[in-house]
Write a structure and sequence with these properties.
Layout: H1 20-25, H2 34-46, H3 70-78, H4 81-96, E1 123-124, E2 130-131, H5 134-142, H6 145-161, H7 170-181, H8 187-195
Antiparallel strand pairs: 1-2
Helix pairs in contact: 2-4, 2-6, 6-7, 6-8, 7-8
C-alpha cells in the first residue's frame, strides 16, 4: 500500500538517485565512495558500460576519520593516465551524491558530526557541463531523456529476457527509444514498446 507523504527535507531530495535505497546500496555502511556510486549511476541509470579497473591498480580506501576528503584521494589516483579516462565518466555522479552519507542522511562534511573535511559536490560531466550539486547534475541529465530511456530500456529488456543485449538487438532498442520519444519516454510507453 503506497501513500503520498510530504517531504520535510524536499530541498535535498528528489528523483530516483536521492532515494535512501539507492544511497544505501551504493555505500558499505560506514563510508561512501564516489567511485562506487558513480559506477552504479552510470551503469544502472545512464546506461554507460564501465570497464573493470586495470590490473594492479589499488582501490582507494576512504579516510573514516574524515580528515581527508575522498576527492583529494581520487585526485592523486586520477593522475594515473590509465585511470583518468574512465574516472572522467565515473566520478561526476559520485561527487554529486557525496552530500549523502552511507545511509542517505544529508551531510556537509566528513567524519563524526560533519567536523572533518568539507564535502565538495561539484564537478564536470564527461560532456563538459559544470554542476554545483546533485540538483544541477540531475537537471543536466534530465535534459537528455534519450539516454535515460536507453538505460532503462536496456535493463528492462535484459531483465525480461534473462540475457544481456547484443549488437544484433541494437535496432530493436533504437525502435523502443524512437517510438517513445514522442510521449516523452513515459514509463508505461517504454515498457509497452519494449514488450512489443
Amino acid at each position: 500500500h503506497f501513500e503520498n507523504r510530504p517531504l520535510r527535507d524536499k530541498d535535498i531530495r528528489g528523483g530516483l538517485v536521492t532515494q535512501g535505497a539507492i544511497l544505501k546500496v551504493t555505500a558499505d555502511g560506514t563510508t561512501t565512495s564516489p567511485v562506487v556510486r558513480g559506477v552504479f549511476i552510470n551503469e544502472r541509470i545512464l546506461g554507460n558500460r564501465i570497464p573493470p579497473p586495470p590490473p594492479g591498480v589499488p582501490a582507494i580506501e576512504p579516510d573514516i576519520r574524515g580528515a581527508t576528503s575522498i576527492r583529494d584521494q581520487l585526485d592523486k589516483h586520477r593522475n594515473n593516465e590509465s585511470c583518468a579516462s574512465c574516472h572522467q565518466t565515473i566520478d561526476p555522479p559520485g561527487f554529486a551524491l557525496e552530500n549523502y552519507d552511507p545511509v542517505g542522511v544529508w551531510r556537509t562534511g566528513y567524519g563524526k558530526n560533519n567536523r572533518g573535511a568539507k564535502v565538495d559536490p561539484t564537478g564536470t560531466t564527461p560532456e563538459g557541463e559544470v554542476f554545483a550539486d546533485i540538483h544541477s547534475w540531475q537537471r543536466i541529465y534530465t535534459q537528455n531523456a534519450d539516454q535515460l530511456a536507453r538505460g532503462f530500456a536496456t535493463h528492462f529488456l535484459t531483465y525480461s529476457t534473462g540475457a544481456a543485449l547484443r549488437f544484433s538487438d541494437e535496432t530493436a532498442l533504437e525502435k523502443v527509444i524512437s517510438t517513445t520519444a514522442e510521449n516523452g519516454h513515459g514509463m508505461r510507453s517504454l515498457i509497452r514498446a519494449a514488450v512489443l
